[in-house]
Amino acid sequence: MLRRHPALAPPCGTAPIFAFVAALAFAAALTAVIGGCQPDAPPPGRVLLVGIDGASMRVVGPLLDQGRLPNLAGIAAAGVHGTIRSQRPIDSPPVWNTVVTGVAPRKHGIRSFAHKNEDGGKDLFLSTDRKVPAVWNILDAAGFSVGVVNFWNTYPPDRINGVMISDHVLAREVEGRAMISKTEAPSEGTTVYPADWAGRLREILDVSDPLTRIANPFRDNPSLPHWVLTKDLIRRYEEDGALGRIALAVEEEVRPDLLMVLLPGVDRVSHHLWGTMEPGEKYPERLRPSDAERAGGRGALETYYQYVDEILGLLLQDFGPDDLVIVLSDHGFEAGTALMYLTGRHESDEAIDGIFFARGRGIQPGGAPGPIHVRDVTPTLLAWFGVPVADDMDGRPMGFLESSSHATRVASHADTPIDKVTTRPSGAEDDIIERLRMIGYLEEK
Q1: Complete domains list, the chain, with CATH
Q2: pTM of this prediction?
Q3: Could you report the per-residue pLDDT of 67-92, keeping only the tens digit for each?
């Protein structure tokens, strides 16, 4: 039986109970008893949403022209593509939380990577700091199933109709099974929901066969720039591959109405290699690559984009033309340094636009998405599923979507129930903070 949130009932178009005639009385009363108000019409299909953290049109555009991103090109040909406007500060946690809530950071509460604690140190923002329901909470309350893999600030995970693999799962700085957090015992909290997925993840990551045809471009590559921490780049490839495998397993075993996966590798790799995309004079001499390093670094970065495109292709296999597919990033990249070796940042208008691709039933092919903002993603997903968009959301359904013109409204989804698996630390917090420091994200500004 579908579970419907009470706040969804008034806007769904059902006539007031006191007004229906005797012939409809029984049917309407039965509907109220068994499931509350249903959407005006069933959604055309399921939804796949893939976040590619830090993907820039400066890389994607030329690779599309060269035919090197066939899966993104297929989405573009069948639907719309272009850029999506991000927000300030251009930091991943507040931006991705705006993506999944439809509201600005001042409302959702995730303002950065971490906040000062009482001892003067740093504590990570967690899902318990999010002040509003996320799209998966709203859809769960409306009776839809959801699979969420690695979105920012999903620890502690929520009990939902589906699977949630939190962003603390791959926190460990080691390979293979040990990438899974060692704090999976129920008495210590869990990084996934349902809890039995902790063991399932270990089985998934035991698979040694390559996920794609593209080998790790950072392994045994002597042409990378001299400042690059090669071991760190190799791990980014492995982690995106692990997340791809996990998402594919969720799709195969759950087949949720909405599958969401966030791949962070492009962002991490770009922090290291963006200097090969920019003129040398933008950097101090110690961060100026030789001609060979420039060619090698740029080639590795482009190959990494191709690798992510192949992961996307695997995820697309179960999603047909009637399903909605959205691929987006939270920002682009620009020249800049952090600490001693990083050459890419995202702080100014030069890096504020991310990529955006969408296709699905009712989307006219070959166009641009129009002026869109990261806050518009959640309203668009709700409109697709026939769930009312809240008046207190800052975003709106995107105009290219056929269902956006007749999206219903509700005052708020603020009372949507949210059930956390635990309130205890995952045990991965220190590892995550150290990784953020390594790429300059916890610098004092």
Answers
A1: 1-38 (no CATH), 41-438 (3.40.720.10)
A2: 0.86
A3: 999 999 999 999 999 999 999 999 99
